[in-house]
């Protein structure tokens, strides 16, 4: 596990932080300024991430059904960790989609009924159908990237974080739960030992790195799919795409 989790990956310099905006702006719809460039970068990182996963011997020992279940559940956080490691900067612009207020005012001027507000999904429940990224969604992703860059996470630390994310024993339907739980524990122990060895003067670093994992859990996978893949390849069925990529020799 340790030898594979320490695989080298290239990085490029980060860009500056995004400016503060009005709190109400978190509901505005946004799009990538250069979707072709960003989507190409995300696709390359996803391929590299799945290649990394496939090269972990203990992952290869799992049945294919277990492998696919793990990857389906964690491809988005793994991708975001890869984007942070590669220092991929997101440049966004406001979408042309009218805001709720604009639609209400327009409807009133035309004597129509204002459109109903769609109910917000319950916390922790997945979104179904297209989820157009809002400024708040993008801010969460940018905040995660900025946190990673501020910690100057090393290649080994990224690898152990990925191992912690990949081997999630809490997924329903897993058969090798104890084995996967042991692998996650190994990744966390290796991260802790590495931090204590390399960052002896920073006793809080291990906790800070686990904050990175908590930030990942707050980002919806559908938002990641809509942001990075829908602008180029349209409606995305990530399950089909991941199955095809996982079964291919990347």
Give an overview in words.
The chain has 250 residues and is mainly alpha-helical. Helices cover 58% and strands 2% of the residues. It has helices at residues 2-5, 35-54, 57-60, 64-85, 100-109, 135-151, 155-166, 177-198, 205-217, 221-228, 230-233, 238-247, and strands at residues 30-32, 92-94. Helix 2 crosses helix 4, helix 6 packs antiparallel against helix 9 (205-217) and helix 7 (155-166) packs antiparallel against helix 8 (177-198). The radius of gyration is 20 Å and the shape is globular. Residues 2-25 and 118-129 have low confidence and may be disordered.
Keyword list:
250 residues; mainly alpha; Retinoid X Receptor; two-stranded antiparallel ribbon; 12 helices
Task: Describe the protein's topology.
Blueprint: H1 2-5, E1 30-32, H2 35-54, H3 57-60, H4 64-85, E2 92-94, H5 100-109, H6 135-151, H7 155-166, H8 177-198, H9 205-217, H10 221-228, H11 230-233, H12 238-247
Antiparallel strand pairs: 1-2
In the CATH hierarchy, the third-tier topology is known as Retinoid X Receptor
Radius of gyration: 20 Å
Counting structural domains, the number is: 1
Q: What is the CATH top level name? A: Mainly Alpha
Helical fraction equals: 55-70%
Number of strands: 2
| CATH architecture descriptor text | Orthogonal Bundle
Number of helical segments?
A: 12
N to C succession of SSEs: HEHHHEHHHHHHHH
| Mean pLDDT across all amino acids | 79
Shape: globular
| Poorly predicted residue ranges | 2-25, 118-129
The major beta sheet can be summarized as:
2 strands, antiparallel
């Amino acid at each position: 596990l340790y030898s594979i989790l320490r695989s080298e990956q290239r990085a490029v310099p980060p860009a500056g932080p995004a400016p503060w905006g009005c709190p109400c702006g978190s509901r505005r719809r946004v799009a990538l300024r250069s979707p072709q460039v960003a989507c190409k970068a995300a696709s390359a990182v996803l391929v590299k991430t799945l290649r990394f996963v496939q090269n972990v011997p203990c992952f290869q020992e799992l049945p294919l059904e277990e492998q696919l279940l793990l990857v389906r559940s964690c491809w988005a956080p793994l991708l975001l960790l890869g984007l942070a490691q590669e220092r991929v900067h997101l440049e966004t612009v406001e979408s042309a989609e009218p805001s709720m207020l604009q639609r209400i005012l327009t409807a009133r001027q035309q004597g129509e009924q204002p459109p109903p507000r769609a109910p917000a999904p319950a916390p922790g429940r997945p979104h179904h159908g297209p989820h157009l990224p809002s400024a708040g969604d993008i801010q969460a992703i940018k905040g995660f990237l900025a946190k990673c860059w501020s910690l100057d996470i090393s290649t080994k630390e990224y690898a152990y974080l990925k191992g912690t994310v990949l081997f999630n024993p809490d997924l329903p339907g897993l058969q090798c739960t104890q084995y996967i739980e042991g692998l996650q524990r190994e990744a966390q122990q290796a991260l802790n030992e590495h931090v204590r060895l390399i960052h002896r003067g920073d006793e809080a670093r291990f906790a800070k790195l686990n904050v990175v994992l908590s930030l990942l859990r707050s980002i919806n996978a559908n938002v990641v799919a809509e942001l990075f893949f829908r602008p180029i390849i349209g409606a995305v069925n990530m399950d089909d795409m991941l199955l095809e990529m996982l079964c291919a020799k990347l």
